[in-house]
């Protein structure tokens, strides 16, 4: 456990003696898009988690979660911030790799968030060939149009699958998400159909075709092996290898996932001379080298390359 105690205060929750957590490292390494920095040092952020506005502030060795209760922590935030995992042992293992040693030191405060699977699925469909400002803009627009208002400051929860299923493809195009509108619309329909069939299966036997559709129930994907989950996620429209790996890593607890795009391919060439390989082969190389810690390694490498402004293009 990477904190000593949990103390309830008047307007939030304090974690004392926190290790392996720096807000900037966590919120600015490409895994989440609903956190805004509130200071110059990257120690104070405001975000939306599970339909609730939350502030996270690092105060010395403490972490203060404004607007959070012990119930919030026990029922979701412990998992969200991955506080059930001790990061020091895994960092020691990764640091045995000479190339990763400095990367782990640089990104010492990285933790892999475990976000809502549906929000993560739609967010990373939005990420395809898109920059972070545009991704954030798309998520805000979708939430404001179809989500629930959760504060007097104009904050909206990300819509549930049922809420987002009410959107037409034309409406989604109108939100400025471009060609991704058809993927968001289609993937949402698949999620809703899987949920419907899961309930239906309690009343009758499903046909083979229905079984295949029901297999896309997001709650069930976490129970699968990494490779089974990877293959199944790619049955969603708009989901390719990188998006599947991101969804697995950032919401389904699959730490052996290794998201790869052209940028990561060049990074692997820079650090490990994995040159002239296809994206699937780069993914395989990362998994072979790092095993069940591949997702952590990917995050440390990404953060280090960006912080050091390593030219890999």
UniProtKB/TrEMBL annotation:
Its EC number is 4.2.99.18. It is an enzyme of class 4 (lyase). It comes from the Bacteria. Residues 126-306 form the HhH-GPD domain. One of its GO terms (molecular function) is class I DNA-(apurinic or apyrimidinic site) endonuclease activity. The keyword Transcription regulation does not apply. CDD domains: ENDO3c. GO terms for biological process: base-excision repair; nucleotide-excision repair. SMART domains: ENDO3c. The keyword Transcription regulation does not apply. It catalyses: 2'-deoxyribonucleotide-(2'-deoxyribose 5'-phosphate)-2'-deoxyribonucleotide-DNA = a 3'-end 2'-deoxyribonucleotide-(2,3-dehydro-2,3-deoxyribose 5'-phosphate)-DNA + a 5'-end 5'-phospho-2'-deoxyribonucleoside-DNA + H(+). Keywords: DNA damage, DNA repair, Glycosidase, Hydrolase, Lyase, Multifunctional enzyme. Pfam families: HhH-GPD, OGG_N. Belongs to the type-1 OGG1 family. This is DNA-(apurinic or apyrimidinic site) lyase. It comes from Proteiniclasticum sediminis.
